[in-house]
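Task: sequence design from structure.
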């Protein structure tokens, strides 16, 4: 009975502390430990146990000592995606499932980005276009290609204005980064790196031209080609085995 009361008090405190954090600007003091104990009408152990749970949600940061207290925090985009990617790894998500999911998400994002002409990310997309055009002329390395792929995902996600789809894309990109080297369709294949990079730049140009149809067509073609390469890679690996 005592244990049930304790758990109930902790859960109520978790709910209150979470709500107070969400109502407070990140980095701002929610309250000192003494103030929160008084506000919630709970014991110190209950507050600390609840704070530990809310900290796992990245909504509270506890600072001890002078000037300390309980501060509002927010989950980072990357951390949330990382956790979700680990979950999908534990479910043994296959590469083809990843690629079949990432294609439609990217198409939807580039269409939204092309329509969102007021996005501040457009200036960054212009810079990205110029930089990648220069790298292509000089010869794009595999590592540069991977960095550009992640940067492209971030910029398109921001330009789309759709946080949900952007998060889904980030989850899948983090998941794809964990695949075995022998399944990587771009490693050691400079012609594929070049072809995909050129098509990616066509997508960016279409977004900057506010042309969602062309952006979607190029994004879809790129996704479909990557799936074809992936199937070839898996098939060749099976024959070699």
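Answer:
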């Amino acid at each position: 009975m005592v244990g049930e009361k304790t758990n109930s008090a902790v859960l109520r405190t978790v709910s209150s502390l979470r709500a107070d954090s969400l109502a407070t600007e990140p980095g701002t003091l929610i309250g000192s430990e003494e103030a929160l104990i008084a506000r919630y009408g709970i014991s110190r152990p209950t507050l600390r146990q609840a704070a530990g749970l809310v900290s796992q949600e990245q909504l509270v940061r506890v600072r001890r000592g002078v000037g300390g207290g309980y501060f509002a925090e927010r989950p980072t985009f990357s951390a949330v995606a990382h956790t979700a990617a680990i979950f999908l790894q534990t479910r043994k998500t296959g590469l083809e499932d990843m690629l079949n999911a990432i294609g439609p998400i990217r198409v939807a994002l580039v269409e939204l980005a092309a329509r969102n002409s007021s996005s501040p990310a457009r200036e960054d997309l212009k810079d990205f276009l110029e930089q990648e055009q220069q790298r292509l002329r000089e010869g794009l390395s595999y590592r540069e290609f991977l960095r550009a792929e992640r940067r492209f995902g971030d910029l398109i996600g921001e330009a789309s204005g759709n946080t949900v789809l952007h998060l889904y894309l980030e989850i899948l990109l983090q998941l794809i980064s964990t695949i075995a080297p022998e399944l990587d369709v771009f490693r050691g294949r400079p012609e594929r790196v070049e072809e995909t990079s050129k098509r990616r730049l066509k997508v960016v140009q279409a977004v900057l031209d506010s042309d969602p149809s062309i952006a979607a067509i190029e994004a879809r073609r790129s996704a479909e080609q990557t799936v074809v390469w992936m199937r070839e890679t898996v098939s060749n690996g099976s024959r070699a085995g």
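The chain has a mean pLDDT of 92.
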